[in-house]
């Protein structure tokens, strides 16, 4: 309860992934949808300093999420996660800002979700490339799903999208605050700029 157990993989072949999902006859639990995420912090940066995340997300509904510091266990990232659905995205943003929080990052992506038993496969089209997140009930379940999908386990990613953007900025000399399609228009992101390997 209130725990996230997940790992990411960077892929190159979207069509092959979708064919694999179809071959496995995996049900779609959420059709492809655009997602906008706002990450908040206090003016002193204390949430980031404590490796905590306060995020407001809008896709088919608005959700407010808190995440605690992540720990690696059996190659998978585990962290406390508390998420609630909110009725009004803009009003929730104003509420957070009234409490002294401010937006420190916006990131967006297109996401579709599929189910492998109780595990969620999230197919994320991001400005940094195509990622798949596997979120399950145990590290063993996540690893088994990666094997079923034919992913290279040694190429797994335990970094958040905000951490990947920070890494990209450091490696390339960019200063992007936001992981937006507009910022990355015309840019080709090489996996080496993220210190990542392709997993398919």
Question: How would you summarize this macromolecular structure in one to three sentences?
Answer:
The protein has 200 residues and is an alpha+beta fold.
Any overview of this molecule?
The chain is of the alpha+beta class and 200 residues long. The protein has a single domain (3-194), classed as Hypothetical Protein Pfu-838710-001 (Beta Barrel). The chain is built from 5 helices and 9 strands. It has an 8-stranded antiparallel beta barrel. The longest helix is centred in the last third of the chain and has 12 residues, at 161-172.
CATH superfamily, called what? Hypothetical Protein Pfu-838710-001
How many structural domains in the coordinates?
1
Largest sheet: 8 strands, antiparallel, barrel
**Overall pLDDT:** 96
At the fold tier of CATH, the topology name is Hypothetical Protein Pfu-838710-001
Low-confidence stretches: none
State the share of residues found in helices, binned by percent.
10-25%
Can you name the CATH architecture? Answer: Beta Barrel
Q: What is the topology, as strand order, of the major beta sheet?
A: 1-6-4-3-2-7-8-9
Category from helices, strands and their pairing: alpha+beta
| Percentage of residues in DSSP E strands | 35-45%
How many distinct beta strands?
9
Radius of gyration: 17 Å
Shape: globular
């Amino acid at each position: 309860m209130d725990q996230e157990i997940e790992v990411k993989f960077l892929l190159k072949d979207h069509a092959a992934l979708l064919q694999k999902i179809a071959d496995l006859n995996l049900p779609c639990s959420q059709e492809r949808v655009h997602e906008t995420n706002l990450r908040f912090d206090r003016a002193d940066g204390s949430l980031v300093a404590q490796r905590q995340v306060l995020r407001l997300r809008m896709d088919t509904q608005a959700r407010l999420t808190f995440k605690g510091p992540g720990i690696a266990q059996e190659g998978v990232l585990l962290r406390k996660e508390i998420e609630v659905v909110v009725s009004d995205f803009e009003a929730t943003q104003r509420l957070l800002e009234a409490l002294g929080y401010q937006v420190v990052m916006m990131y967006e992506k297109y996401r579709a979700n599929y189910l492998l038993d109780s595990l969620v496969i999230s197919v994320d089209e991001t400005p940094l490339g195509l990622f798949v997140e596997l979120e399950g009930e145990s590290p063993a379940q996540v690893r088994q799903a990666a094997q079923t999908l034919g992913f290279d386990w040694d190429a797994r990613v335990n970094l958040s999208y905000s951490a990947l953007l920070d890494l990209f900025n450091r490696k390339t000399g960019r200063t992007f605050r936001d992981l937006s399609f507009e910022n990355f228009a015309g840019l080709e992101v090489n996996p080496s700029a993220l210190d990542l390997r392709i997993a398919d």
